[in-house]
Amino acid sequence: MKDLPKISFIIPFYNAGDTLKETLSSVVALEYPTIEIIVVNDGSTCDTSVQTLRDAQAHFELTIINIDNSGPSIARNIGIERSTGKFIIPLDADDLIEGDCHLQALKILEEDPRVGAVVGRTRFFGKKSGSHLSINKGIDAQLIYNQFPVTAIIRKSMIDDVGLYDPELSKPGLEDWEFWIRVVASKTWNITCINSPFLAVRVSEHSRTILSANPNKRDIDRYIHKKHAILYAQQHERLFYALQGLYKERSYKIGRAILAPLRWIKHSFYKPS
Questions:
Q1: Contact 124/203 with Cβ under 8 angstroms?
Q2: Do 262 and 151 share a structural domain?
Q3: Smallest Cα–Cα separation from 29: which of 83, 95, 88, 100?
Q4: Residues 212, 244: one domain?
Q5: Are the C-beta atoms of residues 96 and 200 closer than 8 Å to each other?
Q6: Per residue in 25-50, pLDDT tens?
Q7: Is 86 contained in some domain?
Q8: Domain containing 189 — which CATH number?
Q9: What is the largest CA-CA distance in the chain?
């Protein structure tokens, strides 16, 4: 790539003064020449955090957008709409970018216009350690659980096509799950996953997943199932008939016969209480 395309980092910010500098430093450490950093202050109420955000402008080249508290989904959308980059990287204000995954991703995105997003390996730190490699298993899996983190290298034209993050999920949570459902269900765009370090997620007892998404999971599920009712129905019908075909396979019948004695033992000795 002769001319490196501009990347816009979109960072929703709510009382995250303790972690913002580390997050911004990780972005700057990429030493990528055409970066745009947009921090959307989502109605922060902590004076120290607000001051930290203001001070950050003296050390980092960034744009600050102030809005009333609306949740990260809406904050992200506002940042994306104001961005000027060809590619978007959503990033939470307590997470970190690492490695050179963005360079590998840009090569993939530039070579294949059908790829709308590239996801790298996720590392966890804080209250949880380890790492995770996302694998795109298609729409069947995506309708059941979210296969991808919110932070990816995303083609802005894909966002223009499939739409922004759902504002109805801005405060309940899991808006990225619903966003990726639309992407995976699209017949236009693909998501590529590569085994290269990219995102470091800070896990704490104050994380939005623990405080918001987990308690609201049942309501979120209902909302997403209703919004994508036709898609869920279509996939259910396809899977139903696929299983009907499976039942007729000789290998299935043999396996069922082999397991029959074990099922008899289970029903004989493990009575429901």
A1: yes
A2: no
A3: 100
A4: no
A5: yes
A6: 999 999 999 999 999 999 999 999 99
A7: yes
A8: 3.90.550.10
A9: 73
Average confidence (pLDDT) over 108-129: 96
Cα–Cα separations (whole angstroms), residue 157 to 85, 88, 154: 10, 10, 9
pLDDT for res 273: 42
DSSP state of 212: I
Across 95-123, average pLDDT: 97
Cβ proximity of 88 and 80 under 8 Å? yes
Q: How confident is the model at residue 241 (pLDDT cuts 50, 70, 90)?
A: low
Ranking 14-18, 33-37, 137-141 by mean pLDDT, the lowest is 137-141
Is the same domain home to 242 and 181?
Answer: no
Number of domains in the chain: 2
On whether both 178 and 209 belong to a single domain, the answer is yes
Query: Is residue 1 assigned to a domain?
Result: no
Higher local confidence (pLDDT), 121 or 256? 121
* Per-residue pLDDT, 199: 97
What pLDDT digit, counting tens, does each position of 212-232 carry? 667 888 899 899 999 999 998
Task: Look at residue 2 and tell me if it is in a domain.
Answer: no
- Tell me if 89 is assigned to some domain: yes
Residues in Cβ contact with 67 at an 8 Å cutoff, skipping those fewer than 6 apart? 40, 41, 42, 43, 74, 75, 78
- Examine the domain organization and report whether 91 and 13 are in the same domain: yes
Residues 111 and 178 in one domain: yes
What pLDDT score does 190 carry? 97
- Beta strands 63-67 and 87-90, pairing class: unpaired
CA 192 – CA 239 distance, rounded (Å): 24
- What is the 3-state composition of the chain as percent helix, strand, coil, each rounded to the nearest 5? 45, 20, 30
